[in-house]
């Protein structure tokens, strides 16, 4: 199958360079992180919640399937004439049912880690298992705090990896300092705290994305976020069992920022072009990517259009001449998902770009430091692998004078696959062939249609 500059061959794609300029306005699917949490917290609410623009990614549909298996009625309903609208008949904090079989968490680390927090609070037995990529991702980071709270959890390889078997219930509150910046770990403990005796306090040295806190507050649940005495990070206090139910909600999920990042990159890198991505999540904890691009000299502008359930708006990106930077350490947690496409942008910048403090990239869907370095080297990029990041000596002339065909590999990682497709569209000579593209469905099944509409306008 061929879509303009994209030629598909089973689980591979051939990509040619984009020659003509474009000026376009697009939208991307609903934010994945909020979609996961909307299904989970809607299922725990006491009543019916309505969610518009839910992400239909494989990861998010796995979350829907998981809560259906736990006894929750979740229906598609065209609230606004869209197939992305759902009604969730919440069963309350104590209404989930013991699953009769293994819960399939597919490729989703967010589903696995957050659902573990909920299941830890349930006095029944459950097992979670995903695909081979998910089952190689570290889980001690959630097993340790949940065990401290009283849950019994076992996993493969001495409790390091899924599948996870959970016997929950009888949780007690704890004070927990999150050892590495991770919204998934923080949220896991917060969700377990809903079922614990007493008040659980979580300390994070570096604040991470706060979607769980925002939705719980929207549901009227007592969650307090304070600045510690030393003025660094945040203290999150979650009231425990018996402090009330979660209220149902009606929300319209803003567009996924990480999905928008691929098209922002295309607008910045393709000469004479510009792109506007509308109705995008603009949560301050997700803004590291935009801040880094501005440091590089990118012409990127934000317009806020709404505040509920979180700040949202439009992003306009125009072709820009870029310079290399050292990414500030404080920005790293806020752009952790965008580093694959950021590495592509840095490859075309003038001068050196350095990323450190990003060791978390090694435990994503792939070892993203290794997969970034492998693929960019194949494209002729001067890149050095670091223990916790990479260095790129950018070259604006990289676009020209390449081999007729360069073979790349996604290694089953959706963000690597999409980033290399964008790189292929920017390169002017030769083609690139990327193997392992089915994984894109885990986060952005509409990706190819969106690219096709853009390049064939």
Give your account of this protein's structure:
With 457 residues, this protein is α+β, with helices and mostly antiparallel strands. It folds into 2 domains: 230 residues, Enolpyruvate transferase domain (UDP-n-acetylglucosamine1-carboxyvinyl-transferase, Chain), CATH 3.65.10.10; 221 residues, UDP-n-acetylglucosamine1-carboxyvinyl-transferase, Chain (Alpha-beta prism). The protein contains 13 helices and 24 strands. The strands form 6 sheets. The chain has a 5-stranded mixed sheet with strand order 1-2-3-24-23. Helix 3 packs parallel to helix 6. It is globular and about 65 Å long. The mean pLDDT is 94.
Report on the biggest sheet: 5 strands, mixed
- Second CATH tier, the architecture of the largest domain: Alpha-beta prism
The CATH topology name of the largest domain reads: UDP-n-acetylglucosamine1-carboxyvinyl-transferase, Chain
User: Would you report the number of β strands?
Assistant: 24
The shape is globular
The named CATH superfamily of the largest domain: Enolpyruvate transferase domain
